[in-house]
Design brief:
N-(1-d-carboxylethyl)-l-norvaline Dehydrogenase, domain 2, binds D-mannonic acid, 474 residues, 3-stranded mixed sheet, 13% strand, 8-stranded mixed sheet, 2 domains, Rossmann fold, alpha/beta, globular
Length: 474
């Protein structure tokens, strides 16, 4: 006999979750990763309910509409080899459409708002291969012009009446910061939680770099009042599927339209100041360090670098998930070769690379986490710049070929070429440029795509020759 359970609406009253905490943090980029990571850490360490999060979407408003309808609540499913654990998370106090600049301005003008966290994905910082703000990108140029005009009209980005349309994270946050300056609401921390090299500097480039284009006075205020914190963030969070929605409803009885699936593991390393305070994230295991570089490199090269290699080499071999790829002999051999190269440049004490690699392999093998290679393969042009290029360069500087890292690049080139032959457009923020280059073939194509990642490497005939020789070996 099947017992029919009544499905309950998910809200704070019915779920018995405390009322929403007052907002002290603003988040930009309301996706699954924010909810499995920063929102989870905050929920773990805030028993007095002092640190509510107001989360804004990055692009479409959809995630905010869904979450707002459930009072900001969602189920976090921690999925291990042994089973699932379900918890209802309440640290998000409010969810808004990222285009709702009036809300953003109001919250950033409030002295109680102490922290802005950001997860908008790598390309959304609009930085060039040199790490500087790409001021000639049409969206950046349009946002800079809109802010400049507003500044010229009001002398302070006074936006009481009408708001401009701003597309980029940098411009939206800058508008909010300008309002904070006008309100004299004090200093604040901006915390990038995206997988970028020196993500604090990247956020500074995206925001402060734009302020430089708008007004010297505003740029000075940002320099004096905004602390850009560097972080290394880690928690594998695949896309939620329909089957997950059904499993959550079955296990909890709640009709949750936005659950998040994640692994039990999580890690957060931070470096920088919080001039207006912060939640005690260290109580949930976050680590504060002076020098983030070694931790960031360990994570970006060993975890993310491996992910990108597996994403392309795995899909070229017809594989679907990370767990499938680490079950494939050729993929794991390539993975180990890449890891050996990267590890040679991770020598700082305390990194414990052998244990880190072993733990990564078992995380990747968690077959209950359906982490799609296709999802990881998106935006390769930005990701490989930080995941494979630094290892290749370090290997060559040490007098070696860097074949392991070059193979990740070769896999990307072949993957793009195959996709193009099938008539599919690359899932990449630089798709237009890539489509143009994919008209080329042979060594010309290899050289052009290596140049997209790094101009010096593209000009190095030995590197281009090596990458080219590794193509087609899947
Ligand atoms: C992945 C990351 O999609 C990707 O590019 O490499 O999202 C990865 O799963 C996370 O950084 C894990 O912490």
């Amino acid at each position: 006999m099947t017992v029919q359970h009544e499905v309950k609406t998910l809200n704070r009253t019915i779920a018995g979750v405390s009322p929403a905490a007052p907002v002290r943090m603003v988040h930009i980029g309301l996706g699954a990763f924010h909810r499995s990571h920063q929102a989870w850490y905050t929920g773990q360490v805030d028993p007095e309910h002092q640190w509510g999060i107001a989360a804004f979407t990055g692009r479409s408003p959809e995630a905010a509409t869904t979450l707002a309808a459930q009072d900001g609540l969602y189920t976090l499913v921690e999925r291990s080899d042994d089973g699932d654990e379900f918890s209802i998370m309440g640290s998000i106090s409010a969810a808004y459409d990222g285009a709702d600049l009036a809300q953003l301005v109001a919250l950033l003008s409030a002295p109680d708002t102490a922290v802005v966290t950001v997860t908008v994905t790598e390309p959304a910082y609009h930085l060039g291969a040199d790490g500087r703000l790409n001021a000639s990108s049409p969206v950046v140029a349009a946002d800079a012009a809109a802010l400049k005009e507003l500044w010229a009209q009001s002398g302070s980005l006074d936006v009481n009446s009408s708001f401009p349309t701003l597309a980029t994270m940098g411009a939206r946050v800058l508008l909010g910061l300008a309002a904070r300056r006008r309100a004299d609401a004090g200093p604040i921390a901006v915390v990038s939680c995206d997988n970028l090299t020196s993500n604090g500097s990247a956020a500074s480039e995206a925001i402060h770099g734009l302020a430089d284009l708008v007004s010297d006075e505003l740029a000075r205020w940002v320099a004096d009042n905004v602390s850009f914190v560097d972080t290394s963030v880690d928690r594998i969070t695949p896309r939620t599927t329909d089957a997950d929605l059904a499993a959550v409803q079955k296990a909890t009885g709640f009709d949750d339209a936005a659950p998040v699936i994640t692994e039990p593991f999580s890690n957060w390393v931070l470096s920088g100041n919080f001039p207006a305070g912060r939640p005690a994230w260290e109580k949930a295991g976050a680590v504060f360090v002076e020098d983030i570089a070694p931790f960031e490199q360990r994570k970006l090269w060993l975890l993310n670098g491996a992910h990108s290699l597996l994403a392309y080499a795995g899909q070229l071999r017809g594989l679907r998930t990370v767990a499938d790829a680490v079950g494939d002999f050729s993929c794991t051999a390539e993975l180990e070769a890449f890891w050996n190269e990267a590890s040679a440049h991770l020598n700082q004490p305390g990194l414990d690379i052998p244990a880190y690699r072993a733990a990564l392999l078992s995380r990747f093998r968690n077959a209950r986490i359906e982490h799609l290679l296709e999802q990881i393969g998106a935006d390769g042009s930005t990701k490989l710049r930080m995941r494979a290029v630094p290892v290749l360069r370090a290997e060559r500087a040490a007098g070696r070929t860097g074949e392991g890292a070059a193979r990740a690049i070769a896999a990307w080139v072949d993957f793009l070429a195959h996709q193009h032959d099938d008539g599919a457009r690359p899932a990449d923020a630089e798709a237009d440029r890539l489509v143009g280059l994919l008209q080329l073939s042979g060594m010309d194509l290899t050289k052009a795509l290596v140049t997209v990642l790094n101009a010096d490497l593209g000009a190095d005939a030995a590197v281009v020759g090596l990458v080219h020789s590794l193509r087609g070996s899947w």
